């Protein structure tokens, strides 16, 4: 099972990249130890710290001919990874 789903590349997390912190969307049932091992294996870096958070899905409503349909987007889990001083992850190397 793959623990990492995708890196999160937004303006907010791009600012954290300057400090050595990187954000990833991870599997809902992944723990910090699994996340650390996967990142070290996949990117070849040393991870110092892993912080996780769960983002509850937003309530969405769409209006159709038959009336309003209401639902919720799915829950996602994010991990913010702090790397050892001087190490970087280059997400744009394969482009």
Spatial order of strands in the largest sheet: 1-2-6-3
Could you tell me the strand content as a percent range? 35-45%
Sequence of secondary-structure elements = EHEHEEEE
Number of strands: 6
Flag low-confidence runs.
none
Mean pLDDT, to the nearest integer, reads: 92
How many angstroms separate the termini? 26 Å
Mass-distribution shape: elongated
Share of helical residues? 10-25%
How large is the count of helical segments? 2
Reported for the largest beta sheet, the result is: 4 strands, antiparallel
Structural class: alpha+beta
C-alpha Rg (nearest Å) = 17 Å
Question: Could you list some keywords that capture this structure?
Answer:
alpha+beta; 95 residues; two-stranded antiparallel sheet; 41% strand
Describe the structure.
The chain has 95 residues and is α+β, with helices and mostly antiparallel strands. 20% of the residues lie in helices and 41% in strands. It contains 2 helices and 6 strands, in the order E-H-E-H-E-E-E-E. The protein has helices at 11-17, 32-43, and strands at residues 4-7, 21-26, 47-55, 59-64, 67-72, 76-83. Strands 1-2-6-3 form a 4-stranded antiparallel beta sheet. It has a two-stranded antiparallel ribbon with strand order 4-5. A hairpin with a 2-residue loop joins strand 4 (59-64) and strand 5. The longest helix is centred in the middle third of the chain and has 12 residues, at 32-43. The protein starts with a strand and ends in a 12-residue tail after the last strand. The model has no long low-confidence stretch (mean pLDDT 92).
